[in-house]
Design goal:
Distance between the termini: 16 Å
Number of helices: 11
CATH class of the largest domain: Mainly Alpha
Oligomer: single chain
CATH topology of the largest domain: Cytochrome Bc1 Complex, Chain D, domain 2
CATH superfamily of the largest domain: Cytochrome c-like domain
Shape: globular
Radius of gyration: 18 Å
Structural class: mainly alpha
CATH architecture of the largest domain: Orthogonal Bundle
Strand order of the largest sheet: 6-5-7
């Protein structure tokens, strides 16, 4: 198993995590991370890095091309569409809660909502709509319900550029909380998300190249064995691998982490429902 030296990882992590403390806000943090990414991967653009492990692995990239569209993607999108358009007893639907029936909106999430004073992900917004109409909530960690709905909703934004905003003070605070969580060591292995992704992207963990944080919010959900896996679901899997107790599905912590990663993907094109091999 090829994996970075722990002492080197610690020194790099400390140096990198302290740098944003001198930045004025989210855009400066993003610029710093993009600059580090350009230094580490001068031949790859941010959009290239959005391919995840395939950005560094020609074999995996070829597999991804062969599996486009991803097996099971059409079925997942259709299952999500049925849930999205299904009528509630009052005649309304999830589609009626969102502008343009949900078309093109996914590129702007997560977003801070001053009315509820919290960061709202697509999962949160969907469950807010269900609450409004007296319907049972969906489990944010369930691929068969929330996963398929996100597969459909993000397919409606395919080709759009990620455009999340952190202009208000509360939004900037949530971004900073996501950054803090990303760089915080936790779990039995004492790793942070940044230990691998920020400092060792392109290197290998086992037989898989480590993706960069740049572009990490672009291709979700991924289709694995025909099942849609959202970004939050994947973060929970990674925490489990780190020996850390995963944050609850739909939690504020996961929302803040997703916000941080989405902001790093600003300006990159959404290519939802990409294929991923079993893992």
């Amino acid at each position: 198993m090829r994996f970075p030296d722990r002492r080197a990882a610690l020194s790099l992590l400390l140096a990198f995590s302290l740098a944003p403390a001198f930045a004025a806000g989210p855009e400066e943090v993003r610029a710093s991370i993009l600059a580090q990414s350009r230094e580490r991967h001068p031949a790859l653009s941010p959009q290239d890095l959005a391919a995840g492990a395939a950005a560094f692995d020609a074999g995996r990239r070829a597999q991804a091309e062969l599996n486009r569209p991803a097996p099971g993607a059409a079925e997942a999108v259709e299952a999500g569409r049925k849930i999205w358009t299904r009528k509630f007893p009052n005649g309304r639907s999830l589609a009626g809660c969102f502008p343009n029936g949900g078309r093109r909106i996914a590129a702007a999430y997560p977003q801070y909502d001053p009315r509820v004073k919290r960061l709202v992900t697509l999962e949160t917004a969907i469950n807010q709509c269900l609450t409004t109409h007296g319907q049972p909530l969906m489990d944010a960690g369930d691929p068969a319900t929330m996963g398929t709905v996100l597969a459909y909703l993000r397919s409606l934004a395919d080709g759009r550029k990620v455009a999340v905003r952190a202009t208000s003070a509360p939004a900037r605070e949530r971004f900073e909380e996501g950054r803090r969580l990303y760089f915080t060591r936790m779990g039995q292995q004492n790793y942070a998300c940044a230990s691998c992704h920020a400092n060792h992207s392109g290197q290998y963990f086992g037989d898989t190249a480590i993706p960069s944080p740049v572009g990490a919010a672009v291709q979700w959900p991924h289709l694995r064995d025909g099942r849609p896996v959202t970004l939050q679901m994947r973060v929970r899997e990674c925490l489990d691998r780190m020996g850390a107790a995963p944050f609850p599905a739909g939690s504020d912590e996961l929302a803040h982490l997703e916000f941080f990663l989405a902001y790093l993907s600003n300006g990159l094109t959404i290519r939802a429902n990409a294929w991923r091999p079993p893992s």
